[in-house]
Every structure is written in C-alpha cells, then in structure tokens.
Amino acid sequence: MIDLAAEFYDQFASGEVPEMTLPTRTKSNIEYDEESGVWVYGDRTSTRSANSVRGARKLLKATYTIDFLARQLEEGRSSTLRELYYLSESWETEDAAFSSQDESNQLIEDLEIVADVTREDFHMRPEESGATLMGPLELREQTRRGERDIHCQEDVGEGGYQIPNNPDTIEFLDHDIDFILCVETGGMRDRLVENGFDTDYNALIVHLKGQPARATRRITKRLHDELDLPVVVFTDGDPWSYRIYGSVAYGSIKSAHLSKYLATPEADFVGIQPEDIVEYDLPTDPLADSDVNALESELEDPRFTTDYWKEQIELQLDIGKKAEQQALASRGLDFVTDEYLPTRLDEMDIL
Amino acid sequence: MIDLAAEFYDQFASGEVPEMTLPTRTKSNIEYDEESGVWVYGDRTSTRSANSVRGARKLLKATYTIDFLARQLEEGRSSTLRELYYLSESWETEDAAFSSQDESNQLIEDLEIVADVTREDFHMRPEESGATLMGPLELREQTRRGERDIHCQEDVGEGGYQIPNNPDTIEFLDHDIDFILCVETGGMRDRLVENGFDTDYNALIVHLKGQPARATRRITKRLHDELDLPVVVFTDGDPWSYRIYGSVAYGSIKSAHLSKYLATPEADFVGIQPEDIVEYDLPTDPLADSDVNALESELEDPRFTTDYWKEQIELQLDIGKKAEQQALASRGLDFVTDEYLPTRLDEMDIL
User: Fold this and answer.
1) Given CB atoms, is A190 within the 8 Å cutoff of chain B?
2) Integer angstrom CA distances of residue B258 from B118, B129, B217, B279
3) β-strand A268-271 against B19-23: which pairing, if any?
4) Burial zone of B158 (CB within 10 Å; 0-12 exposed, 13-18 middle, 19+ buried)
C-alpha cells in the first residue's frame, strides 16, 4: 500500500495524472474458477484516475486511509470498518472524509485487492465476531496481553472457545481431530456437545451461527489446509442453508478476491438432504415461494451444478418440503449422534 | 411439576374434571411493580380445564411434557424448545404431539410460572447462546465434562469467555471488578478490550450482542446480586437501544414471570445519550418515522417515566437525530476510553 502511495507521488512528480488500476468488480467480471473451485475476478480492469474532482477525491481518501492503516500497523492497533468511516471526520482535510460507510467499505475492499492481502492483515477487524470451537485441539492465541495456550475441550466451558476477530493470530499446537464438523444452528451445536460427539468421534465442532462470519470461515480453511483435515458442513435442509454450505466451500460473489483466504472447496455437505427428509420421514414445513425461487436459482448456480446437487434440489422441488436440523429430534434426542451422523459420515468416507 | 401431575391424578380419582390455574398472561394483566422495579403479573387468573376436547388435549400435552422433563432431569440431560416440539412427535399418544412450536413454547412458559423456576432449571436450553465476558473475574463452570476454573482475562483469548446457555452452572470464585459494563455492539466491545479498559478500570465487559439473550441477562443479574457490583449499560443512542437497556434493567412484558431472575433494576444507562450527540457534535443519522414512533411510545412506557428519560427523549425528538456508539471514533479511537467513559462514569458516581 505504501508502494501505491509512492506511485501516486511519482505520477505527480513526472507530471502525470495519478491513477490506480483494479479488476472490475461487477458481477459480469466474476468467474467460477473450475480448477481452484472458487469465485475469482476476470480479466477486465477499471482505472480510478484524478482527472475529475470526484476521481481526485477518491484518490485523496485512499491516501489518507493508507496513512491511517500504516500508522495503525506501526502502533500494533486495530479498528473496525465503521470506526474508519467515523474516524475520517477527524482528518484534517475535510474533502477526505467519507460520505457514507459504503464508500469506506468499498475503498478497503479495493485496497485488499491492490495489496493482495485481507483487511485483517492491515488490522481492520470485522464488525461481527466469529463463533466457537469445541473439540480436541490445542492452540496458541497471540493476544495483546500475551500468549494464551488453550485446549478447546479442557480449558473452556460448555460454550467452547470463542474465535477471535482475526484467527491468523492463532497457531495450532496439537490436536487429536479426525474431521471438522461445521454446524449451522446453536441448538444442534449444543446437542452434539451434550452428547459428547466431539470426544466420541474426535470431531472439532465449529459453530457457524447461521451465515458464517469471516473469522469462522478463515479458521475453518486454515484447519483444513494446515492440519490436512476433512471438513463437513451440517445445516438445515433448505435453500438458504445450502448457501451457507456454499459460502464455506466456495466463497461468495461479493468477496471473490477473498476466496483463496476464506473458502474451503473440499468441504462436503452432510445434510439435512432432501433425501433425508423422505428417508427419515422428518417433520417438515412446506416450501414458500421464495424457497422455490432460491432452489431454482441454485440449479443455475455454478457452485451447485454437480449431479448430486441437481438430484437433491430437484427432489426437494418435487416433494415441496424443507426440514430443520433439529427435526431429527422427532426420532429422539440421540438419533442425530447415534444414527444419523455416523451413517452419513460413513457414506461420505469420513468415518 | 410432579405435584401438578399428582393433582391431575387426584382430580381424576375423586371424579372431578382436571384443571390447572395460572395468572392470565395478557398485556392487561401485567403491571409495573414500583417497589421491585420490574414487570409482574396482576391478580387475574385463567383456568385450563379438561371440560372440552381442546382443554383435555392441553392437559394431556402438559402431562407428557412433565414426564419428559422429569426424565430429562433424572438423566442429567437437556434440550432446546425446538427439540421438545419435534420430540413430541415421537410420543406414543398421537394427540399429545404439539401442533406448532408456539404451543410447546407457551406450555413451557406456563410450567415456569406454575413451578416458579426458570426453564433452565428443568434443563431447557435457550436456542440462542449468551455472549462473552472479559474482565478480572475468576469463575468455576460445572460442565458435563467436569469443573473448569477460568479467569476471564488470563485464561481466554481476545474473544473472551463464552457464557454458557445456563449460567447457573457458574460459581464466582474471585474477582477484582469495580463495576460491570454491558456493551451493545461487538465493534465497541472490541475497542474497549483493545484499549485495555477492563484492566485500567477493573471493569467486567459484558457483550450484549444487540438484544441480550437470557443467559447474558441472567449472569449480569447474578454478578450484580452476588458480588454487589454496580451495572452500567452502554448502547447506541436510539430508541431501540434504550429498549436493550430496558430489557437488562426491567425485563420485558413477554417474560414478566422471569423478571426476578433476569432483570437488574439497579442497572444505569451510560449512553449514547441524546445530550452526548449535542455536546460532542457526533456524526448522526436522521430519525426515521419508526424511530419517532418508538421514542413516543417510550414516553408512555412506565420504565421510562423518570425525569431523566423524559428530558433525553424529548431532546432527541427535538434534534431529530440518532448516533451510534462507534460515532465516538470521529474524535479518535481512544476518545471513548480516555474521555467519554471516564467522564460519564464519574458523573454517575461509578468511578
């Protein structure tokens, strides 16, 4: 980023109009990369130039922001996107203040792309914190107050280990994990912990808490990559939950530049599968119109074009029903840990 | 609850139609109790009687549920409200299955009132887990895997200690806390932790995470009652955030029977006050119509009829603006911990 500011300086010095070049960040310039299995930007680029007042202001804001980020890193501090937006009001040049948080968010995304790092690397914390881990993992977290060595079963309460905003401060010390089980809902996460599924099966239970925060996706990816562990995702059986799986596995269109940091393309889907709804005769709700539309758009989504997903989604449209994870309780509180998960994980060659 | 089931039996045996009596749970039978400072039920009662098929079914469901809860307690297990609803499909009498989750939720609330305990006492876990603690507190949590002694600064990462679903499994061992600071947003919670506010001021920082979960309110109340510590609440400066303060301090109409377990009437409001918006010239958003309506209904709310709230709410309606906690960053990232909180807490006689 300092190089980018230096480039502006050189452009000024040589009498050129300063500019910066970025991949075009529109839907039409985002492609699904078959090889890596994640979303990436295409070849088209856009140029931000100081050849208009509006363009000059954009580069001014970028310069102030780079200055702020450089100082923040030097001082070992951090801040949130929202704080950056408000903080810009205190900058000496009034024209450098952001007019909306959308504007500052977008600039930070631009800088992520230019610098080829994540915003956590320049100490911008996400607004929303990650969820929790429970399982046979010992880790070391670098905190501002020193190192903390924490075993994610023995040193934590039933709530588990709270993932920090920037999980890259974590080092994995030791583990006895066979696979990573990402769980959508708190009710199911608590059921698995109560039933001792993490100890019985050496599973690391990652609570996704609905659509997972960046920190949760990042630590899942690191666990997969660094410890060479399989990742499986266990959600409700409806189109919105399939998207939760999709965001763990393939990333999102909105943050295509982050896929390589956040996405785990090898992650597999456990269920609830439409097939399970039929096989186990689970209590269901009828599909709403919005569910049907979402399923139909998933049929067009490159992330869901496998035979497996086509079959499941068409089955779901056919039966017109959806079911929650906790619907498995209709067969008793232990059904999920005694029957359902062992059967599914065996089918998936995880067990 | 067993007594209640025994009563049904006796009523049957003596040839009476079984029935149970409960306080009427409508808005008109809920009163603000000036003395205790929380919402309570009035004197009106309703009777659930088996003199109709519908009424008989209700009592049948109650009996099955009591049986389930008694077994759950015996076995040292727990479950969620949603699991109970699904589980009822597995009961041998088909008529005992709940037709909706509203029905099972309501029955559990009835049983809380009849038994005069919280549903956590009969091991019904909330669906949504509590948030986190950070500060000079050492506690012991009874987990299914044994006791865990945890210091909420030294034994946790930057994410803090995750409050378990039932905080009554916690014993407070030792502390160096001067006051409890409940914070609405994650961004502000992280700012306070980064700036070391908990260590500099011996504050226990409780993250409310928006409208606080039961577990968060319960542990706040226990900390206040058992350790005799002042509680202050720090939120955004808008009517919805004042309600968050209200739910910590006075409980909600919906769960009036739980006020004595969950509410901390002595909790004080730090801000953002409408007065702060003016005094510190904070970046604001204009009040939407829904904000104005909410403020006007707060003027009628017995929880907000003090001179202080009347003045603040009228000022806010007058200036037509609201501000977020993080808007304090417009004066620099340290303003909140170096200036704003020390000044306010001094005014409030906390420091």
Assistant:
1) yes
2) 7, 17, 11, 38
3) unpaired
4) buried
Using alpha carbons, select from B4, B1, B150, B23 the residue that is nearest to residue B74.
B1
pLDDT digits (tens, 9 = 90+) for A66-99: 999 999 999 888 898 889 998 898 888 888 899 8
C-alpha distance from B283 to closest chain A C-alpha (Å): 7
What tokens appear for A284 in the block?
A: 């269901």
Least confident range from A146-160, A246-260, A315-329: namely A246-260
Is B86 an 8 Å CB contact of chain A?
yes
Question: Catalytic annotation on B280?
Answer: no
Cβ pair B157:A162 closer than 8 A: yes
* Catalytic member of B9, B64, B86, B261: B86
What is the signed CA dihedral for A172, A178, A180, A185, rounded to 10 degrees?
-120
Q: Which residue has the tokens 């950070």?
A: B134
Are B157 and A145 in contact (CB < 8 Å)? no
Asked if residue A254 has pLDDT above 80, the reply is no
- Residue A133 vs residue A91, higher pLDDT: A133
Flag whether residue A125 sits within 8 Å of chain B, measured between CB atoms. yes
Q: Does A90 touch chain B (CB under 8 A)?
A: yes
Owner of token pair 């997903």: A309
Which percentage of chain A shows pLDDT scores above 70? 99
